[in-house]
Amino acid sequence: MAKAQKAQFICQSCGSVAPRWQGRCESCGEWNSIIEERIESAPKGLGAAKSGNVIEFEDLKSESPTLPRSVSGISEFDRVTGGGLVPASVTLIGGDPGIGKSTLLLQLVCTLANKNVSCAYISGEEAVDQVRLRAKRLGLADAPVDLASATNVRDIVKSMVRNNGKKAYDVMVIDSIQTMYVDTVDSAPGTVTQVRTSTQELIRNAKRLGVTLLIVGHVTKEGAIAGPRVLEHMVDTVLYFEGDRGHQFRILRGVKNRFGPTDEIGVFEMAGVGLIEVENPSALFISDRSDNVSGSAVLAGLEGSRPVLVEIQALVVPTSYSTPKRAVVGWDANRLSMLLAVLESRCNIMMSGMDVYLNVAGGLRITEPAADLAVAIALVSAASGDPVPKDTVIMGEIGLAGEVRHVPQPDLRLKEAAKLGFKSAFIPKPIKSKNQEDVKHAMKIESFERLDQVTRLFKKPVNAHEMSD
Fold first, then answer.
1. In the CATH scheme, what is the homologous superfamily, with its name and number, of domain 75-279?
2. DSSP letter at 450?
3. In contact, 407 and 396? CB cutoff 8 Å
4. From residue 305, how far is each of 80, 145, 277 by CA, in Å?
5. 283-468 maps to CATH 3.30.230.10
6. pTM
7. What's the pLDDT band for 122 if we cut at 50, 70, 90?
């Protein structure tokens, strides 16, 4: 007897279930994102008469064997994953279309295959010949990687196992999860139910067999991975491949990692032969910086455990509109509004009549609060026309009272700046570390407790009325 099916109205943006069809999702606010999906309902009383089994618990002090990682040799990828791929782990990689996700994974599996790791690349979007053409362009056509074009999860799971019951591959790539479908689910590929069910089946069988799974995920227009949010909770590692198509740099950022640190980044450069590792991204991010130009400040940032020096650029001009314009690239627009309010309230620097443009050079996106002081100094420098002192790096968080707060691992940031030839630094006061004396001997340190102490180093900016006159 066939199982009964019932209808559910599911939002394809956030995964919430509605009691009936409606034009706008009440959970996420998206329009025309709710569709009807048919799901199989289990008979009533199924499993009610069967009692469960007692779970066997183990002691926390018991030692587990160390899992051998598959080190790819692509150092930037290994850094983000915490030292390589863990057996039976599942990694989800998301990014904008054309950013280089498929190129990165093809380079990865070809590198692993050349180290006698059995790898398979399954594409649901491209034919096998298309994947071969990309491999040939990248100079990887001789790598012993098995290719397939498939979308049926049942067929993929069957291909994971050999005739003797053992796993057929050590590493498998699924490109992409939005093209996969389970034939027992009555909905189109890419819907919330199909994405969730397909991922569950792939993860369950990969864990059972010990196969390392790499899954490509599409992203929405907001930049989040498409499909239900539970997708990111199901996998072991979530990586985002970021970058601007106008720049050659690509940032691989780890936002979740059960086997290593989070917020690590790997930097790649897109070239004709594929993605090339960038071992010293700080030197590249500040290589095109102009000297003695107002509105430019160098931030001594920290991405995971890696210090990164990046240029913050600001431009301040009188507005011709009743509401000033605020344009931000690579930073949080809300945090910029907060800093502008602090500059007006605590430092008496009026920005209400100015259009403000802020840019993080190189296509990198900065999220840490340690960039506050560099942004504020870039704004004051742009408004006054007075350049920031040459060979100076800046770091510090700014509070609403105008105080300059401490940032984590200042020594690591300053050591990277000294290695690249910077001679001085603006930092919060005081610096407390074991290597304080070594850092002070290497660079000239100027520490500040309040933001107004820093702004006094620059000429007083003229307000919008004086500039227009």
1. P-loop containing nucleotide triphosphate hydrolases (3.40.50.300)
2. B
3. yes
4. 10, 33, 17
5. yes
6. 0.79
7. very high
